[in-house]
Amino acid sequence: MKTEDVARFRSVLGEQREHVRRQLADLGANPDEDTIEPAGFDYGFADSAQSTAERAKVLATVESLRAELHDIDTAIARIDKGTYGSCERCETPISPERLEALPRTRLCVACKQKERV
């Protein structure tokens, strides 16, 4: 992969990382902790169906954002190691189109499809 492409992907991943961290903070979750329990819920009012449903929705969103942040951090670490752009399973190059669509991806299309089966 060309040096300028790697630099561009590093920039894109950095922007995505900051965006996800802001989203976590907006939900009351600490972006630097692995706990998924955001602050700001009135636990004394947990018997309300609406409060419980809202809490479950926020927790699911926080969990999803944490997974996305982990993938972004892993991609940045792979750039630092010089392995970015190669499939973690088969070690073949990941197509540029796939990297453009999903810069944090770890697998080529073929390995990702095998994972879903």
What features would you describe in this structure?
By secondary structure, the chain is mainly alpha-helical. The protein contains 4 helices and no strands. Helix 1 packs antiparallel against helix 2. The longest helix has 33 residues. It is elongated, with a radius of gyration of 18 Å. It starts with a helix and ends with a helix.
Task: Give the N-terminus to C-terminus distance in angstroms.
Answer: 30 Å
Order of helices and strands: HHHH
Uncertain ranges: none
Radius of gyration: 18 Å
The biggest beta sheet is recorded as: none
Helix percentage range: 55-70%
**How would the global form be characterised?**
elongated
Q: What's the domain count?
A: 1
Tally of strands: 0
Proportion of strand residues: under 5%
Structural class: mainly alpha
- Please count the helical segments: 4
Mean pLDDT: 89
Could you provide a short overview of the structure?
Helix content is 61%, strand content 0%. With 117 residues, it is mostly helical.
SSE layout:
Blueprint lengths: L2 H24 L22 H33 L14 H6 L7 H8 L1
Helix pairs in contact: 1-2
Name the features.
117 residues, single chain, 4 helices
